[in-house]
């Protein structure tokens, strides 16, 4: 066999020349206009400002209201328990814990599959559709006469609600950028091509919206207490039905009504939403791609559900966020028992319902303040650690003091510290595991889904025989809050030394990226093999 060596480095110089790569994994890059649009994107134009304002007025209030109702319907069992449900259904401490546990077992089963479905369907139908379904189940609880019947409904409620929260977070990440160009602080880093090198964006566009969205969790607690107090005081025994049954019926009907309206308001994805003009849709896609520094390799790297699942699970960073969320969710399970804890502290009857409202108002104010600070400084780790530190100190004081008023005050601060970390963990996850979108969707669902498993053991941390102090439960959450804060503080350092384990699809994408980075000033040598 003869080997003929040919030097072909004397080709005409051109920055457009690309090497020919014979590989089944290299796609044909023809979407030049899309590349030109992304590279030519000018941030902070009047059109973009109008687009963001339109999003803020159309999508954010809709999703926020849907989230409020989701958490009202999920957590109203705690209000119903102290309003007569416990006696009517002979709910022991273990039975009540099982009603909470069964919801999250079902929730975890369907959370990832539901997000994979959402990628392929219209959010404007899917999210309100599952909302109608869970509203019907909640209303149905009002007619159930046995503990076993409510247990079955709680299981199906978990299955249906599983797709809501991760779906909402994924939809928001498809519309909003990480950085809000146009507001800057001094830095040595470049903000975007052509910008002043001494300036960089400090506001996190999606971060602010995530934080606003997560105030719905706290507001839901206040709304639930307000509705419960009013319904139990005004409708107890009306038409022969107990107040706690009226509570489920009215909240379920309200949910169904709101969901039907949301079908006509909620936008779909940027490329398909008819709520926006073609020009707005194109800009919405381009600005998000530009913000994430999306190259053609990532555009061409489409993952099927299994590939996305493998990519997300192989990325070790996913599991650090899972641990954070498990710890935060575990210490937040007291939210299902707050009316019971207050009842044992001496605030009985409908007064226990009203007393939950200030707790959630304090948590809302704290969440907004911490989130705004986190966005301004572009920091996640220390703000999560700060919230967990507040919760840890508050827990210690709750255990140490006996005065009911003092304990109540520090329960407010405890809940504030715990709940301010929720949006920051999920924002951090979305920012760190941002590409490709299929992997991001699965990673968010994994963190949210497995994190919710904490409610299975967390619901058993507050047995009635520990009343009125619930010391073992508070000691457990003190330890968990401290651990969560320490892990959050250490994560950026740990990430630097984590081995990078990519899935097969991601490895192929890296080959494409390397191939496309070749320049024409290289020396190209071709070997031709011929038979004698």
Automatic annotation (TrEMBL):
Keywords recorded for this protein, A-Z: Membrane, Transmembrane, Transmembrane helix, Transport
GO molecular-function term, one example from the UniProt record: transmembrane transporter activity
Pfam family name, one: MFS_1
Annotated membrane topology: Multi-pass membrane protein
Principal location listed in the UniProt entry: membrane
Localization per Swiss-Prot or TrEMBL: Membrane
Residues that span the membrane, as ranges: 55-72, 96-118, 125-144, 150-176, 210-234, 246-266, 352-372, 384-402, 408-429, 441-462, 474-498
InterPro entries, alphabetized: MFS, MFS_trans_sf
One CC-aspect GO term: membrane
Official protein name in the record: Major facilitator superfamily (MFS) profile domain-containing protein
Organism: Talaromyces atroroseus
């Amino acid at each position: 066999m003869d080997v003929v060596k040919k030097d072909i480095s004397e080709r005409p110089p051109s920055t457009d020349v690309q090497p020919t790569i014979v590989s089944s994994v290299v796609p044909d890059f023809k979407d030049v206009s899309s590349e030109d649009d992304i590279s030519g994107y000018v941030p902070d134009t009047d059109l973009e400002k109008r687009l963001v304002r339109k999003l803020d007025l159309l999508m954010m209030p809709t999703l926020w209201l849907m989230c409020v109702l989701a958490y009202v319907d999920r957590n109203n069992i705690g209000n119903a328990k102290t309003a007569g449900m416990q006696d009517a259904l002979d709910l022991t401490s273990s039975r009540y814990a099982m009603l909470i546990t069964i919801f999250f077992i079902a929730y975890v089963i369907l959370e990832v599959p539901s997000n994979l479905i959402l990628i392929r369907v219209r959010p404007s139908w899917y999210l309100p559709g599952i909302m109608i379904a869970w509203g019907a189940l909640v209303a149905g609880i009002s007619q159930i006469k046995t503990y076993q019947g409510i247990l079955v409904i709680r299981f199906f409620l978990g299955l249906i609600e599983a797709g809501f929260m991760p779906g909402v977070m994924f939809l928001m990440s498809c519309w909003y950028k990480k950085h809000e160009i146009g507001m800057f602080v001094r830095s040595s880093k470049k903000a975007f091509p052509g910008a002043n090198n001494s300036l960089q964006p400090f506001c996190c566009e999606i971060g602010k919206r995530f934080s606003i969205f997560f105030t719905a969790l706290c507001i839901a607690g206040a709304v639930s207490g307000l509705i419960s107090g009013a319904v139990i005081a005004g409708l107890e025994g009306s038409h022969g039905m107990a107040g706690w049954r009226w509570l489920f019926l009215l909240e379920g009907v309200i949910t169904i009504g709101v969901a039907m309206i949301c079908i006509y308001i909620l936008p779909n994805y940027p490329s398909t939403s008819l709520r926006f003009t073609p020009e707005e849709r194109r800009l919405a896609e381009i600005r998000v791609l530009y913000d994430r520094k999306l190259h053609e390799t990532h555009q061409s790297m489409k993952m099927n559900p299994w590939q996305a699942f493998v990519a997300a699970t192989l990325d070790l960073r996913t599991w650090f966020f899972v641990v954070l969320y498990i710890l935060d969710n575990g210490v937040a399970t007291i939210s299902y028992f707050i009316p019971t804890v207050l009842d044992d502290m001496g605030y009985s009857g409908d007064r226990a319902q009203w007393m939950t409202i200030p707790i959630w108002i304090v948590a809302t104010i704290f969440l907004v303040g911490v989130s705004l600070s986190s966005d301004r400084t572009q920091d996640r780790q220390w703000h999560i650690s700060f919230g967990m530190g507040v919760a840890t100190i508050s827990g210690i004081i709750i255990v140490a003091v006996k005065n009911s008023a003092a304990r109540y005050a520090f329960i407010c601060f405890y809940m504030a510290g715990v709940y301010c970390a929720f949006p920051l963990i999920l924002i951090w996850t979305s920012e760190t595991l941002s590409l490709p979108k299929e992997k991001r969707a699965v990673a968010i669902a994994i963190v949210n889904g497995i994190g919710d498993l904490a409610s299975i053991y967390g619901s058993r941390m507050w047995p009635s025989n520990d009343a009125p102090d619930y010391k073992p439960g508070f000691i457990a959450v003190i330890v968990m809050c401290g651990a969560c804060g320490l892990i959050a503080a250490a994560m950026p350092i740990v990430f630097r030394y984590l081995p990078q384990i990519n899935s097969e699809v991601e490895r192929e994408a890296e080959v494409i990226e390397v191939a496309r980075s070749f320049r024409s000033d290289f020396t190209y040598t071709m070997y031709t093999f011929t038979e004698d």
